[in-house]
Amino acid sequence: AMSESELEKFLTVLEKWWNFNRGKREHARKDLSVYALFMVGNYFFRDYITNISAGGLFLETKTPATVDEKVTIAFTLSNNEDPIEVEGKIVRVKPNGFGVKFDEPLAIEKEINIETNNRKKNSIEEVHFRTSEIIFRMLEKEMRKPLTGLEKWQQSMLVDKREHSRKHTSIYAFFKTNGLSFKDFIKNLSAGGLFIETGIPLSVSKELSMSFPHPDSGTPIKVAGKIVRIDSKGIGVKFDQPQSDI
Fold it and tell me: Fewer CB in 10 Å around end: N or C, the chain?
């Protein structure tokens, strides 16, 4: 599991990647809900614009559409404005709608109150929401690229940068942290750390003392460490000092 600061950094990288792959997103975007009339082929439809920029928009609709298909859209951004009519091309299609790139950018930054500078720090809830939103909008093949990058980045953050070779084990061990004692299995082990398969609720950065037999000689080992990651199967621990005899 990522810490709050790590998740914020990941969102920043993900947004830059997403923006680049959406036509470089030179225009800032605004989430909204605006009723629009649009024409695809020779047919008219009505549905909602859910985000917009000077360069394009996303229409939430069940209307059948294909990439590169031309579309004409009419909408207003307030009750006092004349309708805006714009032509564009469908650049992506999702189950909940399609994205459109305008043939010519619109001068609408002021009208939709887009703030392009001084981005405030997101709350952790906003980070989770924005990250999930971007991933939901990705095509399957697009998901694979950031996933590969994320896995490599996460590996670089793991226990001990993996300078120590790891071995798979199944060693029953004793653990203690802040007055809580429990027994569970060590599933992999290195001179720099280990992974404990456990369902005990613990948190990253918590100190842990461990006692277990050496995987080869059976000699008792007592070592202290810190939890550096948590996943659905258990916890990863980095030893305070490397254990050269493991």
Answer: N
